[in-house]
Amino acid sequence: MNNRFYLLPLLAASIGASAAVITSPSGNFTLEVDVDGAGAPYYSLDYKGRKVVSKSGLGLLADEMAFDKGFVITGTDTTTVDRTWEPVWGEYASIRDHFRELAVDLESAPGTSPERKMTLRFRLFDDGLGFRYELPRQDKANYLTLRRESTEFDFGHEDPTLFCIPGDYDTDEYLFSETTFGGLAEAMASYRGRHTESQAVEGLSVQTPLLLKTSDPLYINIHEAALDGYPAMLLDADPSGKKLSAHLVPDRLGVRAYLQLPFNTPWRTLIVSDDARDILASQLVLNLNEPCKIEDTSWITPMKFVGVWWEMFTGHKKTWAYSDDYRAKPGITDYSKLPSNGRHPANTANVMKYIDFAAKHNIPGVLVEGWNEGWEDWCSYRKNRQFLFDKPYPDFDIDSLTSYAASKGVKLIMHHETAANAADYERQLERAFSYMKEKGYDAVKTGYVGAIIPRSEHHTSQWMVDHARHVIERAAAYRIMIDSHEAPRPTGLCRTWPNWLAQESARGGEFESMGGNPPSHTCILPFTRLKGGPMDYTPGLFQTDLSYYGEGKTVKAGTTLVRQLALYLTMPSPLQMACDLPENYERFADAFQFIEDVPVDWRDSRYLEAEPGRHITVARLDKASDDWYVGAVTDENARKALIDLSFLPKGVKYEATIYEDAPDADYRTNPQAYRIRRQTVDSRTKLRQPLAPGGGVAIRLQPRDKALAAKK
Amino acid sequence: MNNRFYLLPLLAASIGASAAVITSPSGNFTLEVDVDGAGAPYYSLDYKGRKVVSKSGLGLLADEMAFDKGFVITGTDTTTVDRTWEPVWGEYASIRDHFRELAVDLESAPGTSPERKMTLRFRLFDDGLGFRYELPRQDKANYLTLRRESTEFDFGHEDPTLFCIPGDYDTDEYLFSETTFGGLAEAMASYRGRHTESQAVEGLSVQTPLLLKTSDPLYINIHEAALDGYPAMLLDADPSGKKLSAHLVPDRLGVRAYLQLPFNTPWRTLIVSDDARDILASQLVLNLNEPCKIEDTSWITPMKFVGVWWEMFTGHKKTWAYSDDYRAKPGITDYSKLPSNGRHPANTANVMKYIDFAAKHNIPGVLVEGWNEGWEDWCSYRKNRQFLFDKPYPDFDIDSLTSYAASKGVKLIMHHETAANAADYERQLERAFSYMKEKGYDAVKTGYVGAIIPRSEHHTSQWMVDHARHVIERAAAYRIMIDSHEAPRPTGLCRTWPNWLAQESARGGEFESMGGNPPSHTCILPFTRLKGGPMDYTPGLFQTDLSYYGEGKTVKAGTTLVRQLALYLTMPSPLQMACDLPENYERFADAFQFIEDVPVDWRDSRYLEAEPGRHITVARLDKASDDWYVGAVTDENARKALIDLSFLPKGVKYEATIYEDAPDADYRTNPQAYRIRRQTVDSRTKLRQPLAPGGGVAIRLQPRDKALAAKK
Fold this sequence. Notes:
The structure is a homodimer. Chain A is globular. The first copy, chain A, is built from 12 helices and 38 strands. By secondary structure, chain A is of the alpha+beta class. In chain A, helix 4 packs parallel to helix 5 (about 400-405). The longest helix of chain A is centred in the middle third of the chain and has 17 residues, at about 420-440. In chain A, strands 1, 8, 9, 10, 11, 14, 15, 17, 18, 22 and 23 form an 11-stranded antiparallel β-sheet that branches. The interface between A and B is medium-sized, with 35 and 35 residues.
């Protein structure tokens, strides 16, 4: 990691000042911060001369004292920072972090009590704003029991379109609504939670990352950065006023956060542009996170993987459980004497097949779910020991598999499903990680399906945010990479902990077997969920019509086969699954070649076209070679993508391998119709590429001389 | 461990039977069990022809189904068991486990739904009764969300005296009330909790072990045995009916227990006798616990210890904290740069003095409190990281001290104060135990002062009972002995986990510096708290008047110096502190000789005199020699103990070394006046030994030939 750091002090601190105003480095944004007559702080934000956020309140309310009014501004400090840093992995090899910073020091107004101090820190980038509350040591309080954060986002007279999912304390695995403030009540009423334990929030609440589009249009992403030691933020909508306000996830006793001072909240973020592509390209959330805390990151290896997983979703009636005896208790039952149900794919022979397939196709990882004791009794919340993380099922010969995988140059990926018993996972964590390392595993997929234990907590309450941090820190100590499912949604912490390769934290590809994901879903996720960090979406579904398997599954996935290839570009992640069964990949071996070739770590990225919910076209440069890759997706409508290759170095010929929807392809009727063709291109080429309904395109661009050399 | 096991089947199972009646092996007790017209099970208990417990209800109520009515008896099974077993340590080298057992099988009455099954298992000993609920696998339920246990103890027309402390979900560190059902409301209203977080229970609730004394008199101890996977039981009193009923400690969401079937509840226990000494001698609670689960127990070593501890209570203004900067945060603050407050006794030089003292006086252990980062900020509940268990303060050179202690044949005892953040303790546990072993520690005192995290829990709710079990199991895996403070009160689990040497779980000696313990307190504890297991009471207080230290401490302890010696006999524990400062022991070196000599593990014990709240006289035979020891204590009244030495082997002369209150001793005015005299005695000797108000006597009896040989 290499930080170049420039500090350009602009204004000296001024005591007793009011109404602080700064502009972003380019001058596009203007931010104003002040306190009103009651001493309540507020801010407003302009973009290119237009009001984005009207005067909106700021503040925190704790049992011990209120930080939302009765303040005077005692000083402001403005600085410009321009630095670049190199992420361990990601969409760019180097990221510029360029902003003007404003610190507004507030103190309790004379005559008010108790004495309080707070600093509001704003960072105004050319692609948006981040701000946070900094609570220094106070004379009158060491601890705060936080009851409310009063941050507001007032959109004034705008009536933007909202791309949103309902507020929920325990799950984010929803399809998006595309609605307005006026339509929000109806849209939100239509949801059902995924889990029976889903804790939908009363009132009109939505989750971040939230995307808004105004009529002009302006695109606005609201989220948070560096969520640590604090609960996740939802947003309550006030439809009459077109206003959103922070709604912190409480614990079940009603407390939002227990804080010890000094404490800085996470950053509240607004990414704003009149060009939708800028939203996708923005690195603002990562920039607001702390630098990498892992000294030696050489062991962190982005990778693709296949896995024993989709078999359980396809209608093969395969099970995570080894036995049908649902009363088997891990640690108590002698599993060696338990009858197998014969439908348990995490068995030695089957896993060896996956290892063989991975080795043959240069896929570094093989995930195996259902390998350990506890799946018989898929009931969380009622007991303290759901799973054992060091007890393989009798038909899973972990030592043989580990050495077999090693002999093939493949790594097994561990799976730790906790059934949301985070307390018990912490109980077992050190032993589970030791066991992983002893058995040669370097990465683990964690899961939290169900209602959380400790029973005072929600999936996104402060304690669980802290749990996630604990797991990632301990994983780093063991040199273990994490792919967390059902964890608090990401806020760019993967910059600080790059062993946090990916998270689920949204409705992923698995839902293609549970109701389906419409094509628009993956045209929204990059504008919303992905702004916090990579998603383990599990692309690569080739057999999209699940009736193929019989067994009563009638779901057809919302995708063509080619679109699944494009997702490796439009849904970038350093950890990408090829989710389908090896047998399906063997049936479409030429198409699978793209998955085999496509990298998961990038030197550069160019967003060529973008409109939320409609389409995305992106080009990316491999970090390890000079190959470019292009991916494009559309919604349920056919579309012609305009792929302007002017990003290619001038004068260099490239061989393009184009994986495209066949002319008669359609995600509803003919999803597996594709063509692969080759074409020589250069920086002057503009491809007008047809995309089928629910389809896409995936292109590999190799410098022609190297492509030819490779063929010889 | 050597179990001799005899099974004497008495009755074959009979189907469709009703009203089961059994008697105890000696015939003293008669138990009747039946269901009433509503199918509700009940029991009653007679002792020597007198009703002890009138018809009293039994049952459990879960959200899923009710186990408290609608039953028919489908079978009963009666067995007699007579076996002996050898505890790893304790009051006896060998314990007889002799009872008649009755199993009553209940099933849902025809026409009731859902289908249910339950077995009531009773064990009727010659010193009382134990019974539990056994929930087998059910066709209609795998899990139960328990809302109530309906166990009753109805004392009919009796109006017994109760020796009790108030019901509380979070603390048991109370002085006892000696009251009646009629006086209970007034007695309970007088209590204040020790902690601000104390969760006193609404209504008239008391804790177990509870002692009742009827007018005849009969002595009745009510408690529970083998509390595992279930919350602790309080007792709600119904003053009008002289009835007690079970009150399970709930979590903060109101659930009593989450159970997976099959499940057996802890045993509910009644120890009953017309001779108070039998209550003290009873091993009923241990007998109802499971045998030892630790295969090799050679590393479990009963011991005495001194410690850096009382300095913080005496008014020396010594602190557990290294620094006065209360905002220091463990793991964040660089303690090496933190200014010491200069009042931190857990420093290398001071601990070496304790090691020297221990080595000189054959005390195997030295406890050190305040050795690790985190004490500055003595505030629990507000943050997730209170203490680090592998970070010594900068003035505590753990490596030097470990090797210094080893060179002197002494072991340091670890201290883990968790500030009741049990979740964080579990987070650190494996590393904390590894660190201990790495540094040569074999035993740890744990503490849970404050309100529990997870915030859904109480100190004695199901999750915390499970936490205690987790800690003791993991400790056993590391060969670590535990002395737990502020943990769920003991229920004999130390039989199963003999590395659980002792617990606090009552108002201990530390309160001599915080309000004081009246002399009667230690005349009640052996009848109540100690029936669950040994207490780390911390006897050995020689400087009983704390005004001695200046600094404003005016408390005078409720004890003479000699009484403190007697406590080593009347409050038996395999882990006994000599709590006072070395300098005080050097001032009374001849008296300290008794502490140096007295064992902590016994071959046999004889209770010679006993009356709850009044006096106790006990003789014990050293497990490792032929020496007997006698201890007697009285309440605030002077008394003449009658010490009948007929338990000595006939014809053998013993040299008695008698540590006695001086004639003018009085705990209020002259607590340190004592005499030591020697006398030859044998089995015909009856000592009439005066005890001062608040005083006692401590006697060592050595076979005269060995005593003479030792002097040569």
